[in-house]
Amino acid sequence: MDCQTFLDRPERHKQKQIYVVHGDESFLKRQVLVSLRQLILGTGDDAFGLSTIAGDKADFAAVHDELQTLPFLGSDSRRLVVIEDADPFVTKYRTALEKYATEPAAGVLVLDVKSWPATTRLAKLVPADATIVCKAPPPYKLADWCVRWATARHGKKLAQDAARLLVDLIGSEMGQLDQELDKLAVYVGSALAITASDVDKLVGSSRAENTWKIFDAIGAGQTGAALTILDRLFEQGEEPLRTLGAFSSQLRRLVTAARLNEQGQPLGQALERAGIPPFAVRGCEHQLRHLGRQRVNQLYDWLLEVDLGLKGSSQLPARTLLERLVAQLARKPGMPISS
User: Which domains does the chain have, with CATH numbers?
Assistant: First the structure.
């Protein structure tokens, strides 16, 4: 079951004795675990009914004893045992877990795992509606997720253009998007809706302005000027992932415009169709001509490399990764873009 289906109405799902929460999106996992805790133990003082154990230290015999023993105090006398990072626990005790999944228990076991192959016997023994998948939506669906999340968790209607702007400014980190939605909900007060103007005022004004300045310098081939503005952002405490989000938004638009231009559209018209505001069209023409077709075709690969690097695949500091990207963009032009 997709986690959004569960999170929309967790109370309508019948309790199971074993749940598996798997995937690579930690923010969604945290939301599911909170909802499971409330579903099983209620919203009161559940400290006596909850046990959380690290997967590399968990012993099945001890876990099983916990699950078969009712708490002296706690919500509805239920016990919930959560095994965090449970992949090694599952590997070590797979046979015992298969047996546990088929017998009655007084408590509820939650396995928080990254990998959960559907072909294993254990996976087939866990009910489909107790296997909760926590994967981030693809980038093109993040704005739609923000719209739903703003309504469900923050009680505000988020306009579609506001959602797209928020994703462009913040990036794909769902925890950060949730934090900004929380701030926006407070910012608009009693208003029922969050507009693109609200997002621009609270989240984007200075960041968008600095992004345009960096890309204007890139379009002029002024590497030093672009890096100086970027360094100033870091000194002001700007988050690297947010900076990458703003860069990604601009570069995606440039790629779209370049492809439309290849199909025969004049460059100015292609840029407008790609979502470039009128005041920035001329600057973006310079940026595309400076980059050239060869580098435009590499932009998605470069963005993916930096994104993965910021999330742990590289030993280089975040600042260095972004500085290197800016230097790649600002260096000597390649094959020109037609007018």
Answer: 3-133 (3.40.50.300), 140-194 (1.10.8.60), 204-339 (1.20.272.10)
